[in-house]
Amino acid sequence: MAPPERFGRLVLLGETRAGGLGREYRAVRLSPEGFDRFVSVLRLSAALSSHAEAARRLVEEARLFARPQHSGFARGLGVGRVEESVYVSSELVEGRSLEAVLARCRDEGFPFAAEHGLMVASRVAAALDSLHGKKGESGAALVHGLLAPSRIVVSWDGEVKVQGLGLWGALRTDGILPEEERRYLSPEQAAGGEGAPACDVYALCLVLREALAGLPPDGSDPVEGLREARLTTSGGQRVPLTPALADLLRQGLARDPASRLPRMSDLSRALDAFLFSGDFTPTTFDLAFLMHTLFREDMERETRELEEARRADYRALLPEKPAERAPGPRTEPAAAATEVPSPTLA
């Protein structure tokens, strides 16, 4: 593990992912007494951190999504700035992103069975359906907007959490969203639309198509790719998509929102019907067993590292006085950070 890095009121323990938005870390949040909690930190790229309007909107989105959400979401904890870097913190989910899980399966030739993909999608759909039932200040339904395998985390225990609430609302305008972060956008979002529940339906069906058939979006019509798609059975055989699954994906991936499954609740019910049909028999234990099989050494190492970090002495890293809470991100000395926390945690 890399040496810990002081970052305002946080201590960055190690990088977990680098992407178009910036770098993600496991971190310790400090209290005046020392260790407070483990968090996940997205440290935005220099280009995004320097965009004042995007930083302002991130604060607004953090407040909007600070209300209690479905347990399928990783809780947002705050938005802040340390010197020139804007960051977003959320609860740490010990596990791996679906992106990392699928990559490990490919690299090791290990089958990712269809039931795992259906279970993950079902849990994400339930969380998003709950989100869509809430309204923003304009009266429109709240949406995720940037759903992708990198923002779906499978814990070591087989639980599923969605990250990234608020990023779409903050970064969708001004052409600042990096191209690699646009791969899972619906056609209407890519054309400049604000985003609606049907956009999350489209993104989740793209994720499900990739999880079932190993077909990430490549710019071509995702419906056309269903003709040759194959899924993996629990026994490791590659077989064609069932007609019912193919039909569901066609409905969810329709380019025209008017022709698409309009509500996440429709997709959620359809996924649950597959899970209870008897053709697929996933369990949380099976998903946890997959994670232990794929990442056993990583899991054991990270568990040790987090326990060491929990017991570490942080007195030398504590600021001279508690970090000031402020209405929005602004540049602070290296020893402090402005952070707008979730009101539910105050």
Throw out a few tags for this protein.
346 residues; alpha+beta; three-stranded antiparallel β-sheet; 12 strands; 10 helices; disordered C terminus
Describe the structure.
The protein is α+β, with helices and mostly antiparallel strands. It contains 10 helices and 12 strands. It has a 7-stranded antiparallel β-sheet. Helix 4 (114-132) packs antiparallel against helix 9. The two termini are 32 Å apart. Mean pLDDT is 89; it is low at 322-337 and 342-346.
Strand segment count: 12
User: What level of helicity do the residues show?
Assistant: 25-40%
Portion in strands: 15-25%
Radius of gyration: 20 Å
- Spans of at least 5 consecutive residues whose pLDDT stays below 50 are 322-337, 342-346
* Mean pLDDT across all amino acids: 89
Number of helices: 10
Secondary-structure class? alpha+beta
Strand order of the largest sheet: 1-2-3-4-6-5-12
Question: What's the structural blueprint in terms of helices and strands?
Answer:
Layout: E1 5-7, E2 10-18, E3 22-31, E4 34-44, H1 46-49, H2 52-64, E5 76-82, E6 85-91, E7 95-97, H3 98-108, H4 114-132, E8 152-155, E9 160-162, H5 167-171, H6 187-190, H7 197-213, E10 230-232, E11 238-240, H8 243-252, H9 264-275, H10 284-311, E12 338-341
Antiparallel strand pairs: 1-2, 2-3, 3-4, 4-6, 5-6, 5-12, 7-8, 8-9, 10-11
